[in-house]
Amino acid sequence: MKPTLFVLAAGMGSRYGGLKQLDGLGPSGETIMDYSIFDAIRGGFGKVVFVIRRDFEQDFRDKILSKYENHIPVELVYQDLNNLPEGFTCPEGRVKPWGTNHAVLMGKEVINEPFAVINADDFYGRDSFAVLGAELAQMTGKENDYCMVGYRVGNTLSESGSVARGVCGTNAEGYLTTVVERTAIERIDGKVSFKDESGVMQTIGDHTPVSMNMWGFTPDYFAYSEEFFKAYLKENISNLKCEYFIPLMVNKLINDGTARVKVLDTTSKWFGVTYADDRQGVVDKIQALVDAGEYPTKLF
Hints:
It is a single chain. This protein is of the alpha/beta class. The protein has a single domain, classed as Alpha-Beta Complex (Spore Coat Polysaccharide Biosynthesis Protein SpsA, Chain A), CATH 3.90.550.10. It contains eight helices and 13 strands. The strands form two sheets. Strands 1, 2, 3, 4, 6, 7, 8, 9, 10, 11 and 12 form an eleven-stranded mixed sheet that branches. Strands 5-13 form a two-stranded antiparallel sheet. It is globular. The model has no long low-confidence stretch (mean pLDDT 92).
């Protein structure tokens, strides 16, 4: 059974001021997401599911889905503030979505095979999809054995400023022990550095794995997520800004000894438009990959 690619795209409309400005960064106007779909097809994925907001469904179908129609089966699911477990009601005044792991829960009715989760607006690179696709292909029928792509931190920095990354701790077998969100990571005097909780500058090696929200799960993950979401809401529902993130769920499963997460190394360089100044750099990097023969000039 081929794995499914699950693309978190519910934040797209708001971030870009509507889909019409969905940024064409490739030589033929491709979006970053187009490259992910292209790489996923090459990496052996059999279906793509997008989670979006219902209010831009038509726009999304016309502008985005129509491109992929003859290349890979696609499905849509919808993230909605009111889509909560029985007994919970969205508090008045809440406008912020419930976070990435709530978005993942939206796929539970349509995904019955091992699946990858990615952000819509991150450029992950060909090797990462090859590595993740191969791992997921071996996970059919398994439970409690997940994976994530651990990018080498030196391959994820921005030239325009510091970045926040989930720095991963691993054990001797290469399984995840923790994901710690580190802010203000940048290269200083040639070394990757960040400020710790006490404001002290620390350095880490270039190959230290970080999470770029590229995960591999089996369908049992949905049941855990639903259960934990109820407990999470009991404690946090009145906080209008709280978000139910994937690392929160993953850390809980690891700490409880319920599941383990294999950290997969990739040579891919991650990039994205974190700052407005990053845009031209991304265009240049994609052009360089096209020039090097990694991608055709026109993808779809």
